[in-house]
Amino acid sequence: MRIRQSFCQPLYQTDGMSLDRLFRSAAEIGYIAVETWFRDESFEEFAAAAKQNGLAVASICGHKDLADGLNNRASHDRIESELAASIDLAARLKIAGLICFSGNRRAGLDENDAIDAVVAGLKRSAPYAEKMGVNLNLELLNSKVDHPGYQADHSAWGLEVCRRVNSPRVKLLYDIYHMQIMEGDVIRTIRENIRWIGHFHTAGNPGRNDMDDTQELNYAGICQAIADSGYEYFVGHEFKPKADPIQALRNAFATCDRR
């Protein structure tokens, strides 16, 4: 099956570029979906423009916020409420997945207790996500460069959460850029754990820019491994283009267009 590619709109919509122009150009390249991070007052306009141009919405954040996340039991009521609203929206608009955050490390909370807290928080929302057919994707982020203190910063940590929750709708957002920084061994990790991955993000490392020859990741090989695995969800581009964003999207699509 051909890899289903999406892109994170805020990184590619330059000043003066309309949503319609960006989405039309992306659809002409071959993209079938777009994503954004947070819902705001303009989200309905965003979703309508995507639909008008034949694009699905692949992913949005399901709750606030990155630092105060699921490892804080005091925030579970808030997060459950926010996720319920996001699940309803995702079901209505056929959004495949919602991003969830572990939160930053908390003083006095060891790694296992933090995992227990995230598991408990996700278990509160997993039954409704299952009922509505929406994935809850726990995002893996690097704590070395971009997000100091973030707790779900290794694939093994996130995978343990998924196994303990044991829901078909609780998975990982495996960000290739972030995990290259923290641990590498990307293709092996993908092959061995694809059942637990509900979304991918891409970017070149170092720099978080285009997937060109100045960075170290072999995205053609990585995306071939994803295609070979039978993965059914989206690979979303989340890099900062060095030059023209439409050409950057065109190049990324060609690199990752695998069957």
Tell me the name of the CATH class.
Answer: Alpha Beta
Question: How would you classify the helix and strand content by structural class?
Answer: alpha/beta
Sheet with the most strands?
7 strands, parallel
Span of the ends, CA to CA? 5 Å
Could you say what the CATH topology is called? TIM Barrel
> Poorly predicted ranges (pLDDT <50, ≥5 residues)?
none
Question: What labels would you give this structure?
Answer:
259 residues; TIM Barrel; 7-stranded parallel sheet; two-stranded parallel ribbon
Q: Overview of this structure, please?
A:
- The protein has helices at residues 19-29, 43-52, 76-93, 111-132, 155-165, 176-182, 186-193, 219-228, 245-256; strands at 4-7, 33-34, 56-57, 59-61, 97-100, 135-139, 170-175, 197-202, 234-237.
- With 259 residues, the chain is of the alpha/beta class.
- It has a single domain (4-256), classed as TIM Barrel (Alpha-Beta Barrel), CATH 3.20.20.
- Strand 8 (197-202), helix 8 and strand 9 form a beta-alpha-beta unit.
- The radius of gyration is 17 Å and the shape is globular.
List strands and helices in order, with pairings.
Blueprint: E1 4-7, H1 19-29, E2 33-34, H2 43-52, E3 56-57, E4 59-61, H3 76-93, E5 97-100, H4 111-132, E6 135-139, H5 155-165, E7 170-175, H6 176-182, H7 186-193, E8 197-202, H8 219-228, E9 234-237, H9 245-256
Parallel strand pairs: 1-9, 2-3, 4-5, 5-6, 6-7, 7-8, 8-9
